Amino acid sequence: MKTGYIYDESYFWHDNGSGTLYLPSGGYLEPDVFVEHPLTKRRVNNLMERCGIMRELEQIRPRSATREEIELFHTSEYVDKVKHLSDTTGGDAGDHAIVGRGSYEIALLSTGGALTAVDSVMKGRVDNVYALTRPPGHHAEADRGIGFCIFNNVAIAAKYARKKYGLERIMIIDWDVHHGNGTEKAFYNDPNVLFVSVHQDLNFPNNSGYAKDVGENVGKGFNVNIPLPPGSGDAAYVSVFKEVIRPLADEFKPELILISAGQDPSMFDPLGRMLVSAKGFGKMTKVMMEIAEKHCGGKLVMCHEGGYSNSYVPFCTLRIIEELSGIETDVEDPFATGSNGYPDLVYSNQQEAIDHVIDIQSEYWETFQVKV
Description:
InterPro entries: HDAC_I/II (IPR003084), HDACs (IPR000286), His_deacetylse_dom (IPR023801), His_deacetylse_dom_sf (IPR037138), Ureohydrolase_dom_sf (IPR023696). This protein is of the alpha/beta class. The protein has one domain: Arginase, Chain A, CATH 3.40.800.20. 36% of the residues lie in helices and 14% in strands. The chain has ten helices and 14 strands. The strands form four sheets. The protein has an eight-stranded parallel beta sheet, with helices on both faces. Helix 4 crosses helix 5 (153-165) and helix 7 runs parallel beside helix 10. The longest helix has 20 residues, at 103-122. The radius of gyration is 19 Å and the shape is globular. It starts with a strand and ends in an 11-residue tail after the last helix.
């Protein structure tokens, strides 16, 4: 497999300001490092350089998205707001979506990274791509930013792929620990895009990501939410990919797969309560590669979303890229002992959550209907 890797130094210059975890400092909250911090992503690059895998990847420079491309999803009024904040004092573009000075241009480049990734796989330059996009995008809705996300990179990339390449079936998998609400809204009435969000139940945003939310009108059944209980680890996640996502893909037969790759379901993330290991992310990636090989010639694009453990995100991301590229480095997970004592099994409450999703989706997908 030939794997592309996309990033730009500018991604690390998007400034969220100071805060304490994700809140602004003040009162009893001392200034600290805002949780969506460039260090997490910069250290991904550092680790890949240090172990040598970076030299084995096809490094691809991103272009900036045009305003017309951003407006494939976002309203012109919202784009104006982001640009104004970026050009003047900075500020919040919605709900915890901080725009710093110059963030507008960086956000255009982040979305452009996703578009460049799509072009790279569709034109056969590479088989698959990992794009270290920042700022992230999956929470951003048409008219506002949410949860560190300014422009919805993956949603725009899917709309771009349909428009430019005439694709009829695109599958989007969002494994970020938080529900991909913005991407859900982008395709809630669209039968040409199958959106699957695997997330921690009732984490963020509020009142979002319920299994019962399946889409509307002709889009019914093409929105699949898989809310897992806190404490779900490798076994539960891999079961989701094998029991739900693979059968869905086999029936849907995607022509392109996009993944919102948030490494915040990891066992050390400050904004999640899941227990996925670096090895677990590799296993999830392997299933998705098998699906991509079977249905769309391996055309797989991953865009970085969340992941807030400066120490662990690099190792989780490296495992993903090793799986994508087929290149095994000599890097061992130094935090693997942190999962010692976690039984590698699917607990009953986790299986119940998975079965509940299958039961709901059985109304729309033959693969889940009981054969008598």
